[in-house]
Design brief:
Blueprint: H1 4-7, H2 16-34, H3 41-59, H4 69-83, H5 88-106
């Protein structure tokens, strides 16, 4: 099992993209451990796939967005915690909860609007002035 803490030491996650990379590595390590239970392989695979989707969505559309130090530390701590898991059953439990922990740690993803795009407060033709 790889050590996600080595990928993301506390305070060393400068962007949402690097936080995503660390979280995906931790998720993959959990999945690898969980797959040791042969009867649970398809369940583990489905959890890992769903987790990857959630993590990518949590990172947001622009992976270069800076991440506050406290949020970076929270992601690193969560990844480090997964590295301590040795029991395949516990790894499966963490596969289902880890993405939610990372979503909380990252906070809301910033939205990206296209240049020149009209926002909801840009006025309207109705009710003229």
């Amino acid at each position: 099992m790889s050590d996600p803490a080595a990928v993301a030491p506390p305070g060393r996650i400068p962007s949402r993209g690097t936080a995503l990379a660390a979280a995906l590595a931790a998720l993959d390590a959990l999945a690898e451990l969980g797959e040791a239970i042969e009867d649970e392989w398809s369940y583990v695979s489905a959890l890992a796939d769903a987790g990857r989707v959630r993590l990518r969505a949590a990172a947001g559309p622009d992976p270069g967005v800076a991440l506050a130090a406290d949020r970076a530390d929270a992601v690193a701590a969560a990844c480090a915690e997964t590295a301590r898991i040795a029991d395949p059953h516990r790894a499966i439990d963490w596969l289902s909860t880890f993405p939610a922990v990372i979503e909380l740690a990252l906070g809301p993803a910033p939205t990206v609007t296209a240049p020149g795009a009209a926002g909801p407060d840009s006025g309207s033709a109705a009710g003229g002035s």
